[in-house]
Amino acid sequence: MKRIIAILFCFSLVLIVVGCGGDNEDSEYRAEQGARNGKISSEIRKQEVELVFIKSKAKSLYKNESGYWEADFGNGILLIYVPKGQFTMGNEKLSPEVAKETYHATPEHKVYLDHYWISKTPTTIGQFRKFVEETGYVTDVEKKGHEGPYVYDFNISAFQPKPGYYWDNAFKDVLERYPEITIDDNHPVNCVSWNDAIAYTQWLQEKIGLNFTLPTEAEWEFAARGNDGRIYPWGNEEPDGKKANYADETFDKYFPNTEQAIVHKGVNDGYAITSPVGIFKEGQSPIGALDMAGNLTEWVYDSEYMYTATEKINPIGLNDGIIKMQKAGFWAGSAGRIGVERDELVFGHNIRSDARQGDTMNSADDHLGFRIGISYVNRQMGKQ
Ligand SMILES: [Ca+2]
Ligand SMILES: [Ca+2]
After folding, report:
1. Could you give the percent of the chain with pLDDT greater than 70?
2. Which ligand is the nearest neighbour of the Cα of 246?
């Protein structure tokens, strides 16, 4: 047997040396396959190590309904493992008006990402409450001299900065006016600045011993729309009331004639303001993340940057400016569908997964929150 192998080995060596075309291609193919298999198995090994490590810190680790690993850290904190991958970020189909907006999502560009974790849902009022109770943390908008968060003002039917509102009373005017509307600790936390979100992740880092942070904009968008170019987390169909909470008929009933809001007529999602997190199951993303369209717009880690067409590996906006990026739209955001005649993309506040905005890091709104992640992309350079 050994002899036969030796002969075969020598024969193939001869073939390689002689350089017969077809066999050359074959051996190149085999070499490439071998390298690829090597890469795949090293990736699988990396994933195994990662899962064992996370499991040691989590309450449980299991595969979610979409087939992705999910870690439960207690108190409703669920993080989904996103394996290394690539996708096309941004959207070339924006109307020319939108492409002129400050933070437009063009040009499209290919993005490669290493593995990371992202929260299944946005951080809730209850989760943030625990942080405040344990640390005595005071959010930016509660500090003296701050103009206050952008909240809905019934006098002008629009959002404007008002002092005296913060994460635990953001909707006090709405609740007073409409007693049938309720808010509880399962609703996503809002009126928190980028600084507040970072402070929360730092507290969680110490508490659990993992590198909790905000996802990068690219990590967020990949988690929302996967790699098949879809517009929304669930696909390309317009939302229908079962997939996301946004400016629907219920919103219009309670906030008629709201400036800048483009109501989706004929659709009813049942919520005028925020909804509890995770209830729009039909709106889940390919990895099983929820609320990525609607409910609240979400802070991401990146400082402002404009897209370019070149391919990028683990892109992150890391300048020392005060503008930080936010993704997708919220309870008063439009459906943002592409290809309809309505001029609904102008204000950027729509629920498409590519939609992006920027704002100063100490600003806060009653429609802006965040979700956490665990990431290994270097964020040091941009740390404020
Ligand atoms: Ca709604
Ligand atoms: Ca959201």
Report:
1. 85
2. 1
